[in-house]
């Protein structure tokens, strides 16, 4: 199967700044991804399981449910290993530490350096796909071992 045959990865963007969401949307579509935008952490929680995104971009500061709480909810309640990239204006040590403590995979600050964002997204998606493939191979290997045991 060629890479062109694979479905485009789906990225869920959550930011309360509509202008930034539009810019992120445009940049990621131009980079070859499918994108869905939401304006709050609550919307991420509501839509996450239905959408099953390959990557989530979360702003740290949003109304109703901030990015930190949303990230923690995704990790603890949904038990997801989907990469979560925090994209935020917060650049202090405690915010960065908190993001990783609640389960963020990576962190990038605003104003966004677009080339850095594209590379981080690409790296996170590649790593996630490799992990999924490794997990699938482990399952297949375990199935083969179980089948061989039954044949003895």
Tell me the structural class.
Answer: alpha/beta
Q: Which sequence of SSEs, written as H and E, runs from N to C?
A: EHEHEHEHEH
Helix content: 40-55%
Rg result: 17 Å
Could you describe the 3D structure shown?
The longest helix has 38 residues, at 114-151. The protein has one domain (3-151): Rossmann fold (3-Layer(aba) Sandwich). It contains five helices and five strands; from the N terminus they run βαβαβαβαβα. The protein has a five-stranded parallel β-sheet with strand order 2-1-3-4-5, sandwiched between helices. The model has no long low-confidence stretch (mean pLDDT 92). The protein starts with 9 loop residues before the first strand and ends with a helix. The chain has 152 residues and is of the alpha/beta class. β1 (10-14), α1 (18-30) and β2 form a beta-alpha-beta unit.
């Amino acid at each position: 199967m060629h890479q062109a045959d694979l479905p485009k990865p789906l990225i869920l963007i959550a930011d309360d700044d509509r202008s930034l969401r539009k810019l992120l949307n445009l940049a990621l579509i131009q980079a070859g991804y499918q994108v869905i935008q939401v304006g709050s952490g609550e919307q991420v929680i509501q839509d996450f399981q239905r959408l099953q995104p390959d990557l989530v971009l979360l702003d740290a500061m949003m109304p109703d449910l901030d990015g930190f709480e949303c990230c923690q909810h995704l990790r603890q309640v949904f038990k997801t290993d989907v990469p979560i990239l925090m994209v935020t204006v917060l650049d202090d040590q405690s915010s960065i530490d908190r993001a990783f403590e609640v389960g963020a995979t990576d962190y990038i600050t605003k104003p966004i350096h677009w080339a850095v964002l594209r590379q981080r997204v690409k790296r996170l998606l590649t790593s996630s796909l490799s992990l999924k493939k490794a997990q699938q191979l482990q399952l297949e290997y375990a199935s083969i071992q179980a089948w061989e045991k039954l044949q003895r």
